[in-house]
Every structure is written in C-alpha cells, then in structure tokens.
Amino acid sequence: MKEKHRILGIDPGTNFLGYAVLEVDGKKLSLVTMSILTLSHVDEPTEKLKRIFEKVEWVIKTFNPNELAIEEPFYAKNIQSMLKLGRAQGVAMAAAMIHGLPVMQYLPKTVKKSVAGNGNASKEQVAAMLGHIMNRPIEPSFFDASDALAVAVCHHYLSKSALGGGQKHNDWKSFVKANADKIVK
Q1: Share of the chain above pLDDT 70, in %
Q2: Please, which of 21, 76, 134, 149 could form a disulfide with 82 given CB 3.0 to 4.6 Å?
Q3: 54 is catalytic
Q4: Domain boundaries, given as residue ranges, for the chain
Q5: Is 11 a known active-site residue?
Q6: For residue 82, which phi and psi values (nearest 5 degrees)?
Q7: Dihedral sign of CA atoms 49, 50, 54, 55 in order
Q8: Choosing from 3, 11, 25, 147, which is the catalytic residue?
Q9: CATH of domain 4-182
C-alpha cells in the first residue's frame, strides 16, 4: 500500500447506495467525502443501474481513489432483493474496474467486526465507532453512507493485518518468508 492513498467504500443498493472516500496518510485517516445516492424515486430498474454506474464513475473522477472496497451481498430470504443488490454491486464494481481500480469485497459481518469489534453490531454501534475513529459524529440520516465508510475503514485495517503486514504477496513462498516468525512448525 502507498503511504498516502484513497479508498472508495461502497454500500450497494438499488434504492440507497452509500459511498465514502477515505484518505489514508500514514496512520492518519481522513474522510474526503461521504454521501448517499437516493434512487427510491426511480421506477425503472435499468435506469437505477445506469445512475449507479454514473455516480460511481463521477466519484472516481472527482476524488481519485486508488482502490474500491465494497460490501458483498448477504443471504436474503427474498431472492429478488438479492438479485437487485448483486446487480447494484456489479455495476459499481464495473465502474471501478473500467478506471483501473482494484476491487476488494467484504461480508457485512467482517466489516462490522473490523470496525466495531462485533460482527453483529448494529448500524448505530458501527456509526458510533466510526465517529470515534474519524473524530466527528456520524448523523443517523447518513447510515448508508457510514456503512460505506465502514467498508473503506475495514479494507484499510485488513490490508494492514498481522497476517499480511500490509504487503502484497504473489505466492505462498514470499508470504512464508515475510512471516517466518508467525509460522508454527
């Protein structure tokens, strides 16, 4: 990872898509932007997907993130809801990939655990912890956007985890060599 870089976090949805850009400068985390794309008033599903693509592309062109962290769809009883969510995620990922951004996906429980210490944390608990991390309160009206910020923070934390040490490894041999002190024989 670069010393100073930006992570675009996205909480996908076809009615509300949260996005946030997190800047990482050494150990300092700063919120660049955070907002919600509201699409609940749009009836046509393909129009929603088009607007998601355009918004993600606009965020990338405007704020120049280096990578995308996006929440993965979770299990849902309603298969139609799951399909819609997957389409929104796919369109956002495609916009990022067109601009050459690496894409990382995280399950909701992973995001919650890395930010709040509990994989079953509520939106309020995650937002409160983000407020502490970012040194600014998160308004309840921005919970979809704060979920996107949580995904970006999660990616930052996990990309610097003890297992990876913040380094990229092309094979197991280089990983083992870099982490020899963590290997139990």
Answers
A1: 83
A2: 76
A3: no
A4: 4-182
A5: yes
A6: -65, -45
A7: negative
A8: 11
A9: 3.30.420.10
